[in-house]
Design brief:
Layout: H1 2-5, E1 8-12, H2 16-29, E2 34-38, H3 41-49, E3 65-68, H4 77-86, E4 95-99, H5 104-112, E5 117-120, H6 125-142
Parallel strand pairs: 1-2, 1-3, 3-4, 4-5
Length: 149
């Protein structure tokens, strides 16, 4: 993990209700030290590539994991994913597509662009909380994450 074992998640989500539920689940898991939120695809790219308001790297430390919605304003999730995985400095950064979309086109496109996982958000609050906690347990306990580049 980065910086003396700190676990960091970048949540890329535009729905305020989903942000609240997902951040609550992340905090409740006890597995993540820092949560950063990007409200659209453009902000996510600025955060990851230190552009715009995130030019100062300390304001945007490298996450260990990105949770990325597909349906986003400004830059959609598939485009964001493509740009992350196209950059040699970010190719190994795990990106989990976390979305309500069960569209076969979105699933296929996400994996074609390098998604590490595709998770469909359930509509029920408790199911979403449980799914997020299991997802984090996999990525931070079961799985071995690469050191940041």
């Amino acid at each position: 993990m980065s910086e003396k074992g700190k676990s960091r998640v970048l949540l890329v989500e535009d729905n305020p209700d989903h942000i609240e539920i997902i951040t609550s689940a992340i905090k409740g898991s006890g597995l993540v030290d820092e949560i950063y939120i990007a409200h659209d695809g453009e902000e996510a790219l600025d955060f990851l590539f230190h552009e715009g308001k995130y030019r100062i790297q300390e304001n945007a430390p490298r996450p260990n994991l990105v949770l990325l919605d597909v349906k986003l304003p400004k830059e959609n999730g598939i485009t964001v994913l493509r740009k992350i995985k196209a950059a040699p400095s970010h190719r190994t950064l795990p990106v989990v597509v976390l979305t309500t979309s069960s569209s076969p086109v979105d699933i296929q496109s996400s994996y074609a662009e390098g998604a590490n996982s595709y998770v469909i958000k359930p509509f029920k609050y408790n199911e979403l909380m449980d799914k997020i906690e299991r997802l984090l347990h996999y990525w931070y306990v079961t799985n071995q994450l690469p050191d940041p580049a």
